[in-house]
Amino acid sequence: AKIKLKKETFCSLNLTMMNHLLSSAVALAALAQAAEQDVCRALVMSGGGSNGAWEAGVIWGFVNYGQESDFTYDVVSGVSAGAMNTAAFAGWELGTEKEFAQYLSDKYKNLKTSDIYVDWPFGKVQ
């Protein structure tokens, strides 16, 4: 039996394959760089709403009161609120952890609940 694929399915498969290839290339580059070092440091952030703000404070404390070189991360990962922090972290170069910590801390200082949770225009969904 022959399998017929629609053009949309083929394009979707190509995008998925490209995404996997790109992710693999990035991971391999990170591993190659880490292999040249004696230590590979990872930062994993959890989720849970306001835990994101707590994580920002912990990172700020680490880089401002610890040895800066101890908090240069090779790998960063997170879920939920931690994923938002991870996404923000991805925009900063190695060696700028102190600036990143201040940036993230400032973002949470100015964040209000109404910036995150918005009431439905027609009331609660039941």
TrEMBL record:
GXSXG: where is this motif? 78-82
Keyword Ribonucleoprotein: yes or no?
no
Q: Where is this motif: GXGXXG?
A: 47-52
Gene Ontology biological-process entries? lipid metabolic process
Coiled coil regions, renumbered to chain: none
The record's Gene3D superfamilies line, in alphabetical order, gives: Cytosolic phospholipase A2 catalytic domain
Sorted UniProt keywords: Lipid metabolism, Signal
What name does UniProt use for this protein? PNPLA domain-containing protein
Q: Could you tell me which species this protein originates from?
A: Favella ehrenbergii
